[in-house]
Please model this.
Amino acid sequence: MGTKAVSKLVYLCSIIISLTFMAITVAGAFSSYTDPNKHPLLGYIGTILPILILINLFYIIYWWIRGRIWIWFSLIGVLVNWGFITSMFQYSFDKENTEPTIKIATYNIRGFNNEPTGYSAKQIAGYMQKEQVDILCFQEFNANRYFNMDSLYNTFQKYPYKYIPRQSNGGTRIAIFSKYPIKDSLYISFDNSNNCGMWTDIKVKGKDIRLFNVHMQTTELNRNRHILAKEVQSSDSEREKEALENINRQIVNNQKIRANQAKLIEKYITKTEKPIILCGDFNDTPASYTYRTLKSNLKDGFRTCGKGYGYTFRGLLHLLRIDYIFHSDNLQGIEYYSPSLK
Model:
């Protein structure tokens, strides 16, 4: 085959590949509108949407350099996902405020890494005090035999009000610590899952606010990454293939579980007449059905007053935003940020 023929073949393959990725990326724009129980493939596409957008950006540069009309197709792939892009990148002007304010933090602390001396818990408590946080929403909150629950209570003693529901096995999973009085509360269990939700009514400067704290079904990303890395090192192609198939099944299955959990939480949100703040680790991106269902008629705090790039998951090249704070329309977002802490 001559040089000219090879060049034409490469050009044709480039067109086919870029159009294929454009089509898949466009499909991803509809992933948040479709229940993964009915359309699991679209849910899967939504999970990898950040990667798909990056590929389209690559082809935009590629076709721009080559001066080809195909650039417009890659542009379409990006522009139809503008809503997702603005859920990851925001710029907002500083807002002046004369009304009473509260500062809330949501944090999946992974059991403080089971650290026996309480160092992690003390560092987190110190940081929250420094930042003058009024209310803490924790996920994966639990003690260990060396640094027990009384030690944790003492560590966060600056927050005199708390609600830490016990699960059926006696353990804990989520917690709210507050500088303001907690008037009422409810634990929300999820069927066949250690994950759960809760709400508390908190009296803040004369106003009742219902605060939801949720931890949706895990993605198991960290565990699956370790499993896959182990199988790759084994140099056994069959084991690698089996591991990938298991991971794909888990991703799809966990999306379905999160969708059902989100529907349950939405029912509680819909019935609430008080101002609402919803915090938590959703384990899903803004392109997901879980995100859209939980957001419902609430506002995404990052969209209303965030700045910069809003990732919250350290792995996968910082491509994922899976932790959120939403608020009802009768509350105004002043500032929203996600610090990069060790």
